[in-house]
């Protein structure tokens, strides 16, 4: 594929700027949907455009389903991992199926487990927001939100929640979150220039720090489960995985799930389940008070009244669903999919892509493509509603934030349900306001998962 000229050794690394996904949009204007960069010594194919993204992610599901060997992921990327595993094949496919089954059995609405935990966390968050507000006036909502989201995924994985004054938990969660963001905060030069790995600089070391803290946290809890496991009473995802391991012949032919694989699977679900989306939700709410009012009116019109909102209410709260879709689209806070690797020699848009080539898919571009979205840079939840105020599901499906195909996110339903319950609980009881002096900048801090710049909010109890 065509692409810009590159320098020796560093390739195009210096041309990526602070926001590589935006630089890729500029490149697309010149070179089209498929272009070639050199990051250090490594050739990388960059893919823009919904149709081309589908070609990569959906065509035969296998040609591009590998992950490249990268320094950032090397700490998490042994053959036992789901998300970052370099190897792709039958064993990986079975692993994903098992993880999906374990997650589904505890998150589907009939199981009620996720719903109960999310509702409990949402109430705790309302209470904590009020406490912080009366103690400090204005406060930054991100630390407490990190703990709320971590608590939901803890409950799913280990059947246990933590108090917000549990220092060990709080420190572990914040450290994991900060180190992960630091590790993935730019395109890491150590991924593309091997000698960089030996330099004692934070970006190179952060991934390791993140991995060690997360792994210790998870391994300890999985070990506890081995001793208290009861096959007649499965409490959570870890128990479900132990049970699947004990089923020696899964589907008649599958290999046994090893102890290590149980830890790494929980690790994958736990890591991915600790997402940042709520930081953005609160920011957009304080920035758009009129939108906040519309969601509050919808909660009242749909007669939820003072009862706790449930997953099932999603089908009736169209404007609220449109708002969440628009935050996902507008922020595209995970701008690129996790990098892919060609598992075999393949043609893409007429270009030969050799086996093992690394591929970046620019989801941000798809979500800001003017041919798909009118005034793409405007934040406008109404774009997802028809004239009767009903959701345009076809358009929602065009928002590309969870990936597509065989590597698609496992937690899409969990994430949607969790965001919906927390958002509606908060707005049912509280009014969120910005601090007068706060400019509320929507420019993100770049990363695999982008975070807003620090901001403060104030809350008032609704009467
Ligand atoms: C708004 C929240 C979330 C977003 C935007 C999101 C998005 C993504 C994206 C873009 C990927 C990579 C897809 C690719 O490589 O093409 C991914 C992978 C994954 N996500 Fe999520 N995710 C979210 C929440 C969650 C939650 C709550 C869980 C679990 C409870 C989860 C579990 C996973 C797993 C296990 C993978 C790895 C899939 C694989 O490599 O096959 N995610 N997610």
TrEMBL record:
PROSITE patterns, alphabetized: CYTOCHROME_P450
GO molecular function: heme binding; iron ion binding; steroid 17-alpha-monooxygenase activity
Record's bilayer topology term: Peripheral membrane protein
Cofactors named for this entry: heme
Biological process, per Gene Ontology: hormone biosynthetic process; progesterone metabolic process
SUPFAM superfamilies: Cytochrome P450
GO cellular component terms, A-Z: endoplasmic reticulum membrane
Signal peptide interval: none
Localization in the cell: Endoplasmic reticulum membrane; Microsome membrane
Keyword Flavoprotein appears in the UniProt entry: no
InterPro entries with a match to the protein in the record: Cyt_P450 (IPR001128), Cyt_P450_CS (IPR017972), Cyt_P450_E_grp-I (IPR002401), Cyt_P450_E_grp-I_CYP1 (IPR008066), Cyt_P450_sf (IPR036396)
Pfam family, one: p450
Keyword check for Endoplasmic reticulum: yes
Keyword annotations of the record: Endoplasmic reticulum, Heme, Iron, Membrane, Metal-binding, Microsome, Monooxygenase, Oxidoreductase
PANTHER family, per the entry: CYTOCHROME P450 1A, STEROID 17-ALPHA-HYDROXYLASE/17,20 LYASE
Family the UniProt entry places it in: Belongs to the cytochrome P450 family.
Function recorded in the entry: Cytochromes P450 are a group of heme-thiolate monooxygenases. They oxidize a variety of structurally unrelated compounds, including steroids, fatty acids, and xenobiotics.
Protein name, UniProt field: Cytochrome P450 1A
Originating organism: Pelodiscus sinensis (Chinese softshell turtle)
């Amino acid at each position: 594929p065509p692409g810009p000229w590159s320098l020796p050794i560093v390739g195009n690394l210096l041309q990526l700027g602070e926001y590589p996904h935006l630089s890729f949009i500029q490149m697309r204007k010149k070179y089209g949907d498929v272009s070639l960069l050199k990051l250090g010594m490594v050739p990388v194919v960059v893919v823009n455009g919904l149709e081309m993204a589908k070609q990569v992610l959906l065509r035969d599901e296998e040609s591009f389903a590998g992950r490249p060997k990268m320094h950032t992921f090397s700490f998490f990327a042994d053959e036992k991992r789901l998300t970052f595993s370099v190897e792709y094949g039958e064993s990986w496919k079975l692993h994903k199926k098992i993880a999906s089954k374990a997650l589904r059995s505890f998150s589907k609405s009939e199981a009620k487990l996720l719903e109960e935990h999310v509702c409990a966390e949402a109430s705790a968050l309302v209470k904590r927001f009020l406490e912080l507000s009366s103690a400090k006036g204005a406060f930054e909502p991100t630390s407490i939100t990190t703990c709320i989201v971590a608590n939901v995924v803890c409950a799913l994985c280990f059947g246990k929640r933590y108090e917000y004054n549990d220092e060990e938990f709080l420190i572990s969660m914040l450290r994991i979150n900060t180190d992960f963001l630091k590790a993935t905060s730019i395109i890491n030069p150590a991924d593309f220039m091997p000698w960089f790995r030996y330099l004692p600089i934070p970006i190179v070391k952060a991934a390791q720090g993140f991995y060690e803290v997360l792994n210790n946290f998870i391994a300890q809890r999985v070990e506890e489960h081995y001793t208290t496991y009861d096959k007649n009473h499965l409490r959570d995802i870890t128990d479900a995985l132990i049970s699947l391991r004990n089923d020696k012949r899964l589907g008649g032919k599958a290999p046994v799930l090893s102890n290590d694989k149980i830890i790494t699977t929980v690790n994958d679900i736990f890591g991915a389940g600790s997402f940042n989306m709520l930081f953005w939700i609160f920011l957009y709410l304080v920035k758009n008070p009129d939108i906040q009012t519309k969601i509050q009116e919808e909660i009242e019109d749909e007669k939820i009244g003072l009862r706790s909102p449930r997953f099932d209410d999603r089908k009736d709260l169209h404007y609220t669903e449109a708002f969440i879709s628009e935050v996902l689209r507008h922020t595209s806070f995970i701008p690129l999919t996790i990098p892919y690797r060609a598992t075999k020699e393949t043609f893409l848009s007429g270009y030969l892509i050799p086996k093992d080539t690394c591929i970046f898919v620019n989801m941000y571009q798809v979500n800001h493509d003017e041919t798909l979205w009118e005034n793409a840079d405007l934040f406008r939840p109404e774009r997802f509603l028809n004239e009767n105020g009903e959701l345009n599901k076809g358009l929602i499906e065009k928002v590309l934030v969870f990936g597509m195909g065989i590597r698609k996110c496992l937690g899409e339903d969990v994430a949607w349900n969790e965001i919906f319950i927390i958002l509606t609980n908060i707005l049912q009881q509280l009014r969120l306001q910005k601090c007068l002096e706060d400019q509320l900048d929507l420019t993100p801090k770049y990363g695999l998962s982008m975070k807003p710049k620090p901001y403060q909010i104030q809350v008032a109890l609704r009467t």
